[in-house]
Design goal:
Transcriptional regulator, globular, single chain, about 55% helix
Length: about 140
């Protein structure tokens, strides 16, 4: 039985979901609407513990919560770059970018491109674009 076939019944602790819970929710996001999550839930889940799960979800064009996962990857990238990689390991970020460039579709290639641009030009950071979903909604490449 796959994650998509199982029924998701909610998070044991929504502030600190497990990778399995996040994955199960992502394939049935209407089971627990985002509006019912704690404030700034996107910021809470965008850390090292869940980044590989978020990346996997963002890489899956069939995932119903793909845009949310991609949004979280933008937060993760910005958080790492803006803290000079004190918040997240630079090596992990680079590996994700390289994998997105190699195996991702256009959305993931744009995320990788934007991550590389921000890495080279941290002054291009705007909270709206990176943390409030602007780059996901507009699906644009930074210059």
């Amino acid at each position: 039985m796959s994650v998509q076939e199982s029924t998701f019944h909610g998070f044991a602790n929504p502030v600190d979901p497990s990778p399995a819970e996040l994955r199960a929710w992502a394939y049935q996001p209407d089971s627990v609407p985002l509006a019912s999550m704690p404030p700034d839930w996107d910021l809470l889940v965008s850390g090292d513990r869940l980044v590989l799960t978020l990346f996997e979800l963002a890489m899956d064009p069939t995932c119903p919560a793909r845009r949310f996962a991609l949004h979280c990857l933008y937060i993760y990238a910005a958080d790492g770059i803006r803290t000079n990689f004190r918040a997240h390991p630079k090596r992990r970020f680079r590996k994700l970018v390289e994998q997105a460039e190699r195996d991702g579709d256009e959305l993931m290639k744009i995320w990788a491109h934007n991550g590389r641009v921000l890495l080279a030009r941290p002054d291009l950071f705007t909270y709206r674009d990176w943390c409030e979903g602007g780059l996901v909604r507009e699906n644009r490449r930074l210059g």
